[in-house]
Inverse folding.
């Protein structure tokens, strides 16, 4: 298992896909940082340092939106590349036990999810601290928000990456998996949540990105693709469990329905 | 995980192997044995079920029924399989953006093979100079070599190759042929599939011929060659020659007033017989071997020569697990013996 995991991480390292995802994550994070500095004063947006706790948390968690969208793509790439480039045959010849392959890919995706999160956080610091200083904000106030924000942020990236692996295991088609995931997370889920909330007065808190938002501490009002029009989120740990269940659940279903099929 | 994986000794055994895709039976009751130290050609036309069989052997496709084992074990039950079995399946299974050397490093990592082997096998297949190039820029021949390097990474006792010469130029095919012979010399079990018998004739020791998912013939190639040899004689006494050759178990026929063609005999078989009976000869020449014709016969006209099917005369799929020892592998099945029915001879239910 350790060797298979090392090999999976090596695969990530030696193809361009994951690096592109990393760059896109950083771009989205940078946008998040800039957005956190745009404060609405008297109905007009101004570029100024965030002062209050919610705004500082938003700056600290600027990678949140990127995590919801980009972290699952890491997991999707991890498995659909095998089909797209026909590497699966080779992979299974070396490791014929397919459950080991899926498990190793799950751990490898989680590690890359963590890597994306850490890279995003480093960028938040690298951009946020100088910006905050020059705009007259307090760096120590920002750092005080690290405790409440960072664990949820890391967890969200990790679990979203595993969720992506589950989607990829289920769907196999790389383009379809990526497009469907982005469309669902960014567009469909918020619409469904809002509709069901207003029509049936039920909060669909167990859906993936709602769970992710709960885990990340409800930081998402402005960056997470509009979770407006719905009630309160789950508690952070229930959100985490829910997201983990989405990841493991889709991976297990995918393993039994798709991944065990004949490779011809 | 096992620290020292026991290398799997190399006999390949396929018993009653059947695979159905929907309503299509790709492989039907196939059974054969592949011995170590020999190159065995796995021959049949396109769509005969060769690839499906090899993929079942390698755990990529699950059989509908029957078993396929290497050294007595299913592929997925072999610990660190690439150290026991090397496989070359298709030339496309590389990530085009990955460098060749990294592809092999990745395999070595997962397969528990020392990284120092990577450069060794690259050298072995002559790719050292291109090791740091991306595989996407490789020619088909180079990809095939890289695939072979991957198969050899774990220094396996068993090599399984599916149409390895597909897309290779004549130079590449010659290289591959020498390479396989060299590897077999080391006592390895080598099973190589092809839809071209002529291409394999210079490489293989044994052949397994399949068509429509069923076994058609198997045994040493030398027997098959003898079987398909024929001699042409000029003699003043054709009647005596016909008589003598017939009595010796060959299939002679008169083709001219003083000319006789004897099928199923080479010079070593026919010469001594004629000398013993003091048949006068003006000329005795070997006809061109019609191996390809026999191959076509075996693989296209199904049911016409059930005796040529050897393993399964009734044409029925062998039930899974039926019989531990299959009839007729060693010694060679009767259809290859000098006394066997010649191809094209009438007989048998059709």
């Amino acid at each position: 298992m350790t060797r298979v995991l090392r090999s999976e991480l090596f695969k990530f390292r030696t193809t361009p896909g994951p690096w592109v995802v990393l760059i896109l994550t950083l771009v989205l994070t940078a946008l998040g940082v800039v957005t956190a500095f745009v404060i609405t004063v008297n109905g007009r947006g101004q570029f100024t340092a965030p002062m209050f706790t919610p705004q500082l948390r938003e700056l600290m968690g600027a990678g949140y939106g990127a995590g919801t969208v980009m972290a699952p793509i890491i997991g999707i790439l991890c498995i659909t590349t095998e089909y797209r480039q026909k590497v699966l045959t080779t992979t299974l010849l070396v490791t014929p036990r397919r459950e080991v392959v899926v498990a190793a890919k799950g751990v490898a995706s989680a590690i890359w999810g963590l890597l994306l999160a850490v890279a995003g956080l480093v960028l938040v610091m690298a951009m946020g601290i100088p910006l905050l200083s020059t705009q007259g904000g307090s760096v120590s106030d920002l750092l005080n928000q690290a405790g409440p924000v960072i664990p949820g942020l890391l967890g969200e990236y990790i679990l979203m990456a595993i969720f992506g692996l589950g989607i990829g295991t289920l769907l196999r088609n790389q383009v379809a998996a990526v497009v469907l995931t982005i469309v669902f997370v960014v567009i469909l889920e918020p619409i469904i949540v809002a509709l069901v909330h207003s029509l049936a007065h039920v909060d669909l808190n167990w859906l993936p990105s709602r769970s992710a938002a709960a885990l990340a501490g409800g930081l998402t009002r402005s960056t997470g693709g509009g979770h407006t029009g719905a009630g309160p989120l789950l508690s952070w740990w229930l959100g985490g469990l829910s997201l983990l269940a989405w990841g493991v659940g889709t991976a297990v279903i995918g393993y039994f329905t798709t991944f065990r099929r004949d490779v011809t | 995980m096992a620290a020292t994986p026991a290398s799997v000794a190399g006999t390949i055994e396929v018993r009653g192997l059947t695979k159905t895709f929907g309503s299509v039976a790709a492989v039907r009751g196939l059974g054969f044995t592949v011995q170590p130290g020999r190159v065995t050609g796995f021959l049949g036309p396109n769509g005969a079920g060769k690839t499906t069989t090899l993929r079942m052997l390698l755990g990529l496709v699950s059989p509908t029924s029957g078993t396929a084992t290497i050294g007595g074990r299913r592929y997925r039950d072999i610990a660190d399989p690439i150290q026991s079995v090397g496989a070359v399946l298709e030339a496309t299974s590389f990530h085009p953006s990955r460098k060749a050397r990294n592809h092999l490093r990745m395999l070595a990592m997962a397969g528990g093979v020392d990284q120092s082997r990577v450069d060794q096998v690259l050298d072995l297949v002559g790719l050292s100079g291109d090791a740091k190039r991306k595989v996407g820029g490789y020619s088909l021949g180079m990809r095939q070599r890289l695939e072979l390097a991957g198969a050899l990474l774990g220094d396996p006792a068993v090599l399984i190759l599916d149409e390895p010469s597909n897309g290779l130029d004549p130079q590449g095919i010659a290289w591959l042929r020498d390479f396989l012979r060299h590897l077999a010399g080391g006592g390895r079990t080598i099973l190589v599939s092809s839809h071209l018998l002529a291409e394999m004739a210079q490489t293989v020791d044994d052949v397994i011929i399949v068509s429509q998912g069923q076994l058609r013939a198997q045994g040493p190639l030398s027997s098959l060659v003898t079987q398909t040899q024929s001699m042409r004689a000029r003699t003043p006494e054709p009647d005596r020659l016909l008589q003598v050759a017939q009595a010796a178990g060959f299939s002679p026929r008169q083709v001219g007033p003083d000319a006789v063609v004897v099928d199923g005999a080479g010079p070593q078989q026919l010469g001594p017989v004629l000398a013993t009976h003091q048949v006068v000869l003006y000329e005795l020449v070997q006809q061109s071997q019609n191996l390809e014709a026999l191959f076509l016969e075996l693989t296209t006209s199904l049911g016409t020569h059930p005796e040529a099917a050897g393993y399964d005369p009734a044409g029925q799929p062998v039930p899974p697990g039926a019989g531990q020892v299959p009839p007729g592998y060693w010694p060679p099945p009767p259809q290859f013996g000098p006394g066997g029915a010649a191809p094209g001879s009438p007989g048998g239910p059709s």
Observations:
- Confidence is low (pLDDT under 50) at residues 220-227 of chain A.
- The interface with chain B takes residues 1, 3-4, 6-8, 10-11, 14-16, 81, 85-97, 262-264 of chain A (CB under 8 Å).
